[in-house]
Amino acid sequence: MTTQAHYDVIIIGTGAGGGTLAHRLAPTGKKILVLERGSFLPREKQNWDTVEVFHHDRYHTQEVWRDQDGQALHPGTGYFVGGNTKVYGGALFRWRDRDFDQVQHQGGISLESPLKYRDFEPYYTQAEALYEVHGQHGLDPTEPQASQDYPFPAIQHEPRIQEIHDALQAKGLHPFYLPLAIKLNEANRHLSSCIRCDTCDGFPCLVNAKADAEINCVRPAVDRAENLTLLTSAKVLRLHTSPSGREVTAVEVDVAGQIQMFSADIVVVSCGAINSAALLLRSANDQHPTGLANSSDQVGRNFMRHQNGAIVGLTKKPNPTQFQKTLAVNDFYWGEAGFDYPMGHVQLLGKVNADMIALDSPKIAGVSFQDREVFASLASHSVDWWLTAEDLPDPNNRVQVKGDKIHLSYKDNNTVAFDRLLHRWTEVLKSIDCGDRFLPCSFYFRKKIPLQGVAHQCGTCRYGEDSQTSVLDINCRTHDVDNLYVVDGSFFPASAAVNPTLTIIANALRVGDHLIDRLR
């Protein structure tokens, strides 16, 4: 074991939280160490190979976690510079105004945030600029007020999607352009990094045209700031404290098989909601017997991941769309006539192909599709949707560490809202002839995302003003340890029903400003 130099700030993790924070702090001139357990995601032909990405989980960890029954769980998460933004779809949404308030759902209550939309709005604007978001305001009836336009124009629909957009409008709905973080220049395509391909959503980008935490934050910070050091293949094992337990004095790291100790005035944990909670729990000591910063017994609790599902609707009309993920609908976000509770959000997925359908092929009329030509025919006539409903904070939905294993205990909640959204959207698709007319009952693939789908993980170290019911204060500093912060989706007191990444980014910028003041 060797002891290394002292730093002003150590940031553990390089995803939407840690990567953004590193970018924010780099210009301060302070001595910063960024620790990433993974390496840079390799640029290789397999980046765009469906079989490698989805069948073989090429870019997911080989770790095995456990569920509440002790059954093996293979998490859909990866460890690379940039974290899970390396494979995200780039949909960057602001929370709605009311998402920051206490909201009554059919399945319970989502908690009020101690800060409000007005506190986050300037940081949402900065986050959209930093991640080069394309979009258009004024089309989504639920969107909150924005102080500036999106930095880039909306990504235009391809012809088949424009037809669906027009059909939805004709039904009185309000489809809008999905806010996307991609480097697409539609006016001058020869200058565009993005080639508008069909291997974006869920894939790494071979041409680095996705505005992710590595490309937009970590690389620029490392390249421009001599005061910032990035150390890869550096897995943090535990945090050590002073005898009082009030400050972190050492970060124990496995660096390519060698144990090293680092120290800093400020330590920021940004490992993602699951791994951040696990690190705090693994760092238990005499002063913190149930886990570091866990006097509230809330570390790891209130794990949320959204109620997510997909509909692959088959249509009589071919769908030759390449880049499909351009449209969303929030008309049912706060409910509908006869259901006075929130339901959720709908957006297009990246275009499904034959290999994806083959992953989970159903049987229709007793026929199991074993022929790739059949899969290809289905894919060429499909329109593919992602549905999200809010799941609610539940202290029994939690992250635990048993031995060397992460255990996820999770029971679905607010399922009536999700099921209603799924049913309603299926009916909408039928009404606009976006469902197959050859097969009985307008056949749809409908699949709810299982527990290993943790892309929207949040809520395990929520922030608040009461140290007995929250882990973090409003600046995301732990109540119990003065120089320890958690900056990722852990701080969410509720999950809302839109993709969480922009709120994680905005919060990292907000906490970054707090830390800049503290470091002066």
CATH architecture, by name, is 3-Layer(bba) Sandwich
Q: Main sheet?
A: 7 strands, mixed
Number of domains: 1
User: How many helical elements?
Assistant: 10
* Helix content, binned percent: 10-25%
What is the molecular shape? globular
- SS-based class: alpha+beta
What does the radius of gyration come to? 23 Å
- C-alpha termini separation: 33 Å
Q: What is the averaged pLDDT score? A: 94
Strand content: 15-25%
- Highest-level CATH class: Alpha Beta
Instruction: Kindly report the name of the CATH homologous superfamily.
Output: FAD/NAD(P)-binding domain
In the predicted model, the low-confidence regions spanning at least 5 consecutive residues are: 436-444
The tally of strands reads 21
Structural topology:
Blueprint: E1 2-12, H1 18-25, E2 32-35, H2 50-55, E3 65-67, E4 72-73, E5 103-105, E6 108-110, H3 117-130, H4 159-170, E7 176-177, H5 213-224, E8 228-231, E9 234-241, E10 248-255, E11 258-269, H6 273-282, E12 307-314, E13 327-329, E14 345-348, H7 354-359, E15 363-364, E16 367-368, H8 372-380, E17 382-389, E18 398-402, E19 405-409, H9 415-431, E20 444-448, E21 484-486, H10 501-519
Parallel strand pairs: 1-2, 1-11, 2-8, 3-19, 11-21
Antiparallel strand pairs: 3-4, 5-6, 7-13, 9-10, 10-11, 12-17, 12-20, 13-14, 14-17, 15-16, 18-19
Helix pairs in contact: 1-5, 1-10, 3-10
